[in-house]
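Lab notebook: predicted structure, single chain.

Context: the supervisor wants predicted structures on file for every construct in the current expression panel, including those that have not yet been purified. This is the next one on the list. No modifications to the sequence; it matches the entry in the shared construct table.
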Amino acid sequence: MTTNPERKVIKNLAQLPIEEKERFFDSFDMIQTDCDGVLWMLRDPYPGVGQAIQALRGSGKRVVYVSNNSVRTMADYRGKLEQLTNGALEERDIIHPAKVIIEFLRSRKFEGLCYVIGSSNFKRCLREVGFQVLDGPDEPVTESVAIVAPIIADKQPVKAVIVDFDFNCNNIKLMRAQLYLQSDADCLFVAGAMDKILPVGPAMRLLGPGCFVDVLSQSTGRKPYVLGKPGQEMGQVMKRLHPVDNPRRVLFVGDQPELDMKFGSVSGFQTLLVGTGGVTPDALGGADRDVDTIPDYFIPAFADLEQLVVDVLGYKAKSSL
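Prediction complete. Output recorded below exactly as produced.
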């Protein structure tokens, strides 16, 4: 972690003079954006998001959608995003941990058995492309060491333990994963979503899968390959999926400093924090704060980018007269 001895200046896009807005607008070609808390909250899109996406695309910017939520199906992502973009969407531009993990495993020519703690959709994604998936148990077990022991120490030839969000995560699954990792030093330890807190509304913030990844890491002494935000391994995969000559020509947009802003920073991208996740620049002070979690820019809502596009294009048109 790199601390911030001199506070990084966060530029509020809404307050910049038009010349600086133009420089900002011209500084990137691709936007990679988080979805939950940025484009929508739960089921409902934030007002004006669709118009902002269309304005950005109409001005020549490419938009890629990067989420840590692999519980949502690809069909659901397509439906929501096609509604926002009027159908102007390529499936390759929808990224979530299952897709990134699949690319990671393929790059390593992985062929072994995977023990997966994750949602039904997450496991289905892995199975559909040919990976062998072992999971469970989901049903309660008798509270007896004699009965639990053969379940968690089943000696299956697991070569990768993969942890993502699982509504049905339980202690038996964690102990089973722990023993696979401890019994074979060559067994891969792979993490998808690393959210420790899941904001699902203004007053509800739930326990996230990053907490379970930490439990396994601490109990086994193993560090995972992190294929969800803010993992460096995810950044490397993203650059293979969406090659760029200069990472600084990419703008990463998100609402969570510890996940989105850090991912953008460690990937070498520019970063833009939106206020719809409840975090403002005033909350990001302190010399001991990880500088990678501090954004380059701030804007109250993603929808406000539409006005920025209008302002900059209008200014350019006037300047060319």
